[in-house]
Specification:
Molybdenum Cofactor Biosythetic Enzyme, Chain A, 23% helix, disordered N terminus, alpha/beta, 33 strands, single chain, binds magnesium ion, binds molybdate ion, binds ligand LQZAQKY5
Length: 642
Amino acid sequence: MSISAQGYTVGILTISDTASADSTKDISGQTLKTVFEQASKGNKIFEVIKSAIVPDDFDKIQNIIKQWSDYEKLDIIITTGGTGFGVKDITPEAIQPLLQKISSGITHAMLAASLQKTPFAALSRPVSGVRGKTLILTTPGSPKGAKENLEAVINVLPHATDLVRGGTGEDIHMQFHSQKPSNDQHHCIHQKHENEKAGPFLSDPLSGPVTQRQRKSPYPMITMDEALSIIASHTEALGSITVPVDEKLVGMVLAEDVYAKEPVPAYRASILDGYAVIASDGPGIYPVVGVSIASASQSEAIELKSGQIARITTGGPVPKGATAVVMVEDTTLVSTSTDGLQEESVEIHVKARDNEWIREIGSDTSIGTIVARKGELLTAVGGEIGVLASVGIREVQVYKRPIFGILSTGNEVIDFKDQNELKYGQIRDSNRPTFLAISKVTGFDVKDFGIASDNVQELENVLKLALSQVDILVTTGGVSMGEFDLLKPTLERSLGATLHFGRIKMKPGKPTTFATIGTEKSKKLIFGLPGNPVSATVTFYLFVLPTLRKLAGYEKWNLPTVQAELTNNINLDPRPEYHRAMILFDHTKGKFLAVSTGHQISSRILSMRSCNALLKLPEKTDQLKELSKGTMVNAILIGQLN
Ligand SMILES: Nc1nc2c(c(=O)[nH]1)N[C@H]1C(S)=C(S)[C@@H](COP(=O)(O)OP(=O)(O)OC[C@H]3O[C@@H](n4cnc5c(N)ncnc54)[C@H](O)[C@@H]3O)O[C@H]1N2
Ligand code: MOO
Ligand SMILES: [Mg+2]
């Protein structure tokens, strides 16, 4: 990456047949250098580290611009010459196609400055813009014109350069004005490549020919633990909302501790159908002086005196003075009212104990008891919803639920619902239906963005659209070494996303890519999963689902793990493997058994069928080449135990 301890790296390219034949004629190049030096005021804010002279030759101009931006990773390239109406002037024509973003404002500022000096500036044809992380400007060939143009924009260059790199511009802005260059760099994958000649892009798949592609992945292969901690460092629970307590809460996570507002029961209640008694009265025949049935009543229940009993039903309020309840089975009717409809006196056969068969106020749940905690998932079992309802909670604060978008990519990928027969080379999209199914069972909302072809513009458009609508975007395909694997450069260059990693030492899922875009306050996460159906599904479970859970506020966002015994030998892979298996409980052995789903190639989606766990297998070493039947392994649960 480009900001050195000395400041912004600059390349000055003089484009002139004359100067290329005799470098002493390159006054404009020298003039531009002086302008940068003066603006740096001895602090090397701008450091001209490259200077070159080329003739007015289309290919030569393009080659050096690509070299300086893609591989040398200069912050700023400024050219002088070749912008006029002369027959040989082709600088704008050579440079414009290399620009991924046009900076009309800078061009305008340069033109306006020249126009103030001479109307002939109207005959100048400057272009400026961004390629990768490099800002490119063209100025006229005359030393005076070049100087005026650069001076017109030099104060905005640090800020512009910071924005091009994906920063906010604030720090660089301050740095420029305080003239204290710092070495503080943005945390992105480029840092790891600072000293490498080749940049992180796979050649230049966005505009360069396949012959220029890199033949080794520039992305460092990080470990699974590193990948998980990078993702976690960019993931925080979304904000909270207040919602009513009802069944729609299922699947949401509480954003607050909840305390009981009402006691349960709210009055002393009978546990049985029978008679409220005064325990110390003991067995005997007693008049039935009242009735207390479970129902709402305006007045308090009657007050019992020694020698009296009252009829009561389960849940009925126990009358004042009563100290126990005796069940109807332990009594006999002695006398009735004259019409025979009411009990008059009843014999109690048993000696009741104090408080027997009475639920005191708040004995189930007292006021102020914590009934649900922040971070707790409200499940479909119903328990949590019922508890909240029972203690008078009518609304609660829950975390907003993240919405994730899904996008398949690939020219060969066709919609799974497509009625037509497959053409030669086509494959049905199994990734989107898989993710739609996972969204249904996990309860996370999903937006389907269909299939994008391997075309930069289409990819850029759909990525932008999707990112405007979701919290997390999950794409599949196009992240490896193929010439149509465009996702990484499109994210980074066209969208200005920051790639945090692009390769993980794992199987399947090696090219899994993670990027973020936007400001800290409105950051979107992007998971570029591999296209192979198994790789896509496994990495969804390992990375995306835990992230969704964390965003949704889950206290325990990682998927649960159990220990299981292998039922067959498994050859290990040089990469730690997530082997698909079915876990079942063996009641005789008292442990879980893991049955492999068979051939594990990343394209074989059949290996996901009936799979409810991913066995976490270690990488192969000289000492350990296979795990034998009977070995206990960690199994990450992704499905139900049957
Ligand atoms: N030279 C190298 N080649 C590959 C490497 C490598 O390191 N060097 N890595 C391999 C690994 S590992 C994987 S995994 C794949 C990942 O490939 P991509 O993510 O670039 O995906 P594509 O090239 O677009 O597709 C790969 C494969 O999957 C099929 N596919 C894609 N999308 C879907 C879908 N929605 N439904 C079903 N099948 C899909 C696609 O047709 C290809 O067959 O790269 C290896 N290559
Ligand atoms: O790592 Mo790739 O995901 O083999 O399939
Ligand atoms: Mg590929």
